[in-house]
Amino acid sequence: MELSESVQRGLQSLADQSVFDHGSFQVLVDVSFRSLLSSHGDPTVLGQPEFKQIDQILLKQSHTAAVTFILEAVKQNADQSTISSSLEELTFSAERTEIFYSAYQKHKKDLERLLASIGRGLPHITDASWRLEYHMKNGQVDKVNDPFYLISLNTENEGSSEDINFTCTVEQLQDLVGKLKDAAKTMEKASQM
């Protein structure tokens, strides 16, 4: 798995038995999975008594690295050999790798559902309005005589509505209309197959 330097450093700290003893390692792994699956993201999750002797910055870096690794593993549908080899490259012992993988297996299905629910719904355009404006002149030139359109698209996504506003020239508007017609034709052809 491709991991950034900061994630690698955080995981190497987590693998270091002088920083995280067996008990604190187990708790941090459990806390990392719980924080991902928690619907309200409890900010005191790192306030466990097992973490009192650990530098708080190092603790947060290790927690962030563990969460990032977990999400990347779920995203790639990583198997045991992929996770094991990735963690062993980061100096994890076989025992710690097994603890991590057991927690991963236990929570994998829930995490897959969580990732599948994120970012799937694109906003739907429910209404469009436009207004033609005309620039007569500007600060640099006395005569401009350029028409342009103010477009407002009302969108809805999972119950919330939002307005998207933009301006365009006549040529840009013609290009937009042409692309929308092409998209509509493509969708029509795809639905007939």
SSE layout:
Blueprint: H1 5-15, H2 22-37, H3 56-75, H4 80-89, H5 94-116, E1 124-135, E2 146-157, E3 160-169, H6 170-192
Antiparallel strand pairs: 1-2, 2-3
Helix pairs in contact: 1-3, 2-3, 2-5, 3-5, 4-5
What does this structure look like?
- InterPro entries: COMM (IPR017920), COMMD3 (IPR037355).
- Residues 124-191 form the COMM domain.
- Pfam families: COMM_domain, COMM_HN.
- This is COMM domain-containing protein 3.
- The chain is α+β, with helices and mostly antiparallel strands and 193 residues long.
- It has two domains: 5-116, no CATH class; 122-171.
- 53% of the residues lie in helices and 18% in strands.
- It has helices spanning 5-15, 22-37, 56-75, 80-89, 94-116, 170-192; strands spanning 124-135, 146-157, 160-169.
- Strands 1-2-3 form a three-stranded antiparallel β-sheet.
- Strand 2 (146-157) and strand 3 form a beta hairpin.
- Helix 4 (80-89) packs across helix 5 (94-116).
- The longest helix has 23 residues, at 94-116.
- The model has no long low-confidence stretch (mean pLDDT 87).
